[in-house]
Amino acid sequence: MVHLSVVVPCFNEAEVIDAFHTALVAALEPTRETFEICYVDDGSSDQTLRQLRRLAADDPRVRFTSFSRNFGKESAMLAGLRMAGGDAAVLMDADLQHPPELLPRMLDLHRHGYDQVVAQRDRAGEGKLRTALSRTYYRIVRRCMDVEVIDGAGDFRLLSRRAVDSVLSLPESNRFSKGIFSWIGFDTVSFTYRNVERAAGESKWGGRRLLNYGIDGLLSFNSKPLRLAIHTGLCLFLSALAYALWIIGNVAFDGVDTPGYTTLLTAIVALSGIQLATLGVIGEYVGRIYHESKRRPHYVVRETDTAPKDFSPRSALESAVPARPAS
Ligand code: UDP
Ligand code: MG
User: Fold this and answer.
1) How far is the CA of 203 from the centre of ligand 2 (A)?
2) How many angstroms does the Cα of residue 186 sit away from the middle of ligand 1?
3) Rounded Cα gap, residues 61 and 8, in angstroms
4) 7-25: b or e for each residue (b if 16 or more CB lie within 10 Å)?
5) 7 with 92: CB under 8 angstroms?
6) Which ligand is nearest to the CA of 92?
């Protein structure tokens, strides 16, 4: 059994993958630990897959899996963790934003008995607006969520074997790994490093994708939005009751005739707005239930140099994929 598995999801990373690989091997070799590198090509449309094939052919410590299309980073990380056979696994980005030089330190902390070692980046060199937005997001999330999610603690982390097994034991198809890592628990330690700019290529996280990711995160780990809808409904009902009593009182004691046209319209519009929003929230959850109930595999493998392990019964499809013929 190798000591360390490095899991690297790659999506259109042809420009950096060679530099990354060199840096990674240079950082790992001095540690004298045995290691393997599990690359997952997330349906890249550039030369990434070809480069991975070459890396795997040149170095027996390199393995790879390639998806039939882009399934997203969460699926790619899952596939990588399933490939990983080591005592510990490290999740890393391929764009050199997760400096491989930190690996010895992470291994060291793991040796001290920590099951999760998180390298947390600061926000140096990032746009002011983006920093402010993510700060606000994390503040909201911290108040709403049942699991703790830390600002800047991304996916650069080391997981012990039992932590990896626990992550793999969660079957949900809507995977929000920040929440999952926090949910599984175990002894966790984190340290901060200076944020690095992407070495080459471009980020795949535009504004809209980030926003959707944020909403996913909020919804996949709690049902508080539903609770909020109930609270809003109750407040509205009580204020309507008070208002009605006030009008009845007015008419009874002073005999005032209240023309209620504006009030009526406002009330109707406000109420329909709230109802629509609430329906939307419920719809989101129902959609998620629908999605989960289909029990689809998380990804489809196009090609791999590793015999797929059996994750029955869910992944019959994944295991049905033949291994890559020797070239
Ligand atoms: N990635 C992936 N699938 C995707 C998007 C991204 O596997 O659909 C990988 C990407 O190749 C990189 C990592 O996830 O290794 C982080 O992506 P990126 O650098 O674009 O995100 P950022 O660092 O801007 O958050
Ligand atoms: Mg990046």
Assistant:
1) 6
2) 26
3) 14
4) bbbbbbbbbbbeebbebbb
5) yes
6) 1
Q: For every one of its 327 residues, what pLDDT tens digit does the chain have, with 9 covering 90 and above? A: 668 999 999 999 888 899 999 999 999 988 888 999 999 999 999 889 999 999 998 988 999 999 999 998 889 999 999 999 889 999 999 988 889 999 999 999 999 989 999 988 877 767 788 788 878 877 877 777 777 776 666 788 999 999 999 999 988 888 888 888 888 888 888 888 887 777 667 777 767 777 777 777 777 777 777 778 888 888 888 888 888 888 888 888 887 766 777 778 778 887 887 888 788 888 888 888 888 888 888 899 988 887 655 544 444 444 444 445 544
Tell me how far the alpha carbon of residue 309 lies from the centroid of ligand 2, in angstroms.
Answer: 29
In this structure, what token pair is assigned to residue 230? 């109930």
Ligand 1 pocket: which residues have CB below 6 Å? 9-11, 13, 42, 70, 72-73, 76, 93-95, 97, 198, 203-205
* Domain boundaries along the sequence of the chain: 4-204+297-320, 224-294
Q: Was domain 4-204+297-320 assigned CATH 3.10.20.90? A: no
